[in-house]
Each structure stands twice: as C-alpha cells, then as structure tokens.
Amino acid sequence: MFSSLLKKASTCPNFDINATAMLMPVGWGMVWLARLTAISNRSLLHLASFSGSTLLVKAVEEYNINCTLPKDGWSPVHYAAWSGSTSVLSYIISQYNLNANDTNTDGHTPLVYSCWSGSINSVKYLINNHESDPNITDNDGMTCLHHSCHNGHIDITQYLIEVQHCDINKTDNEGRTLVHHAAWSGNFDLVQYLITEQGLSPTAVNKNGLTALHYASWSLNLSLVKELITTYQLDPHQADSNGKLPIHYAAESGDILLLELYVKDYKCSLSLTDKDRRNIFHYSSFKGHFHFIKHVTSHHSHSISLLHSIDKKGCMPLLYALQNGHTQLVKFLIEDMKCETKDKDPCVLL
C-alpha cells in the first residue's frame, strides 16, 4: 500500500522524494518524543530505516533517494541501528554501500544506537561483521558500555564485558560510572550484576557529587532505592555538590511512593533546600507533577507554606509551573493553594 501511495505521489508536479520531514510530536511519551525529534529534517530513507521494516526500506528504494549525510552526520545506518532490526541494518549497509562506522556530531557510531535499542543481535552484527569498535568514546566520554547501562540492557552489558572485554572502570566526562548509568535506568538486576559480579563500587561519586542513589531516585524503581540504602549503605541524606538531595530528585521524577519512603522510613525533611534554595515544590513544579504536589499538600499539610517560598533568584514554585506551561498545576496553585505572583517578580522576566 505504501509503495502504491509513493507511486501516486511521485506523479504530482510538486512532489520531491528527497524532501525532509519536520515532525511535531504532541503529547507522546518521552522516549518517542526524543526519537521523533531526532528524526526531524530526515529523508524518507532515514524514516524507513528507523521503522525497522525491510519492506518499507525496499518500497522507497526505487526512487533514488539521496543518502548524503545531513549536517549532524546522521546516516540511515544510525537509524537502522536504532530500530534494532538486524535485517534492516544489513540491507541498508549493503544496498546503499554505506559506512557502518560513521560518527555523527555527537560522536555516536551506529553501534551506540544498537546499544540504545536493546537488540543484542544488531550489536553482535556490527561488531562481528563490520568490526565496529565498542570502546570508542563519544563527545561525552561515554563508550557503548555506558550507553548500554544507561538504557538498562543487561544482556548487551554482559556481552560487552564478558565477550568483548570492555573496560568496566572507565568513567565518562562527568565522572559517571557504569553503576551510575545503570541506576539511572532503574534496572535492579543490572545494578546488582555490576556490583556483585563485576565488583564495581556502589558508593562512587561523580564530579558533581552524585551517587547511585541520586540517579536511582530519578528511575521510579522503589526496590532499587531500598537496596542501595539498606544493603549498600548509601546515605539518603547525602547532597550532591549543589546541595540537591535524593528527595529532591524524587520530587523531580514525581514519584509519590519514593517521596513517602524518604519521609517515613528515612526521616528526610520536606523543607530542606539545595544551595539555590529550591525545595521539593520547585523541582516538581518545573516538571509539572500536579498529582505529586496535590498528594504532598494533602498528606503533609505542614509543607504548604513551602509553596510560597522563593529560591535564590526570587522564584516561587508557581513561576516554575508558569514558565513551563503546566496549566493544570498553575490553576491548582493559584485557586486552591492561594499562591500569588507579582509583576515585579524577577522570575516573570526569565
């Protein structure tokens, strides 16, 4: 059907098969938002490669589509690798005679995107068939092993460590270890594997003072947070270099259960601020976590006064919600919580 549509479209006088797509995703999940944003200004071949469908790639093949790399260096191979489809990846490389190891402006090779996709078959294909190097570092100092852990793929991580013998002790430019990336992903088994089987430290701190617990507090995995605190003795009261606590990261993620765990089990205070005097409501308002804030104000009424506190720049949580267009939250803060802002408030001008 797609092929027939292309044939009909090609007869139109203004039809350009090499035109690029501008996609405007609205209301989609964060993963798809990131993917579709990356695809903006791509040709049909880029889009077809990302679909993971060999049939779709073949459907556009007869139209002589330009395979020239865009300014940011993304080739159809990068997208085929990201799709996780080994068949599309193999077809794109051979049929269009494309380099399997080109880097884009982020320093990412197609192998990095195979690690993102979770397809161990495409990872093995690129390494074994095209001698892709899993040890190349990107602009952030991350190797394929960091990317695999960051995306929570334990099978790819095990393959890179046990078969490819990738360096498990290498940190990225921010000083993040494999455990930090795995904790961010929320994959409990992956974190356990790195600590118990590979002997990596659960208490390592990056250049900004973040531990695995700070990253896990973003991940929405309550069991992982408990494990890091109870088994590996990470401190729920330890701040990063900016004074940001694990409970602030929980507020930023909007995780109600995790917040209650920190408050009830570990006696973390809701009123604590970072060095910029931002509290849990500043972080949750920035992200628009309406239900999180409503829960806190309902179950911890003593914290309501924090909604009227200002940070170092003079901004209340309401201003964070306003600036980021969180309409439902703004309405709740103004009408129910009686938060007010003034025209002279410095944050209005940010």
Automatic annotation (TrEMBL):
This is Uncharacterized protein. The keyword Repeat applies. The lineage of its organism: Eukaryota, Metazoa, Porifera, Demospongiae, Heteroscleromorpha. It holds the Pfam family Ank_4. ANK repeats lie at residues 174-195. It comes from the Eukaryota. Keywords: ANK repeat, Repeat. It comes from Amphimedon queenslandica. InterPro entries: Ankyrin_rpt, Ankyrin_rpt-contain_sf. Signal peptide: none annotated.
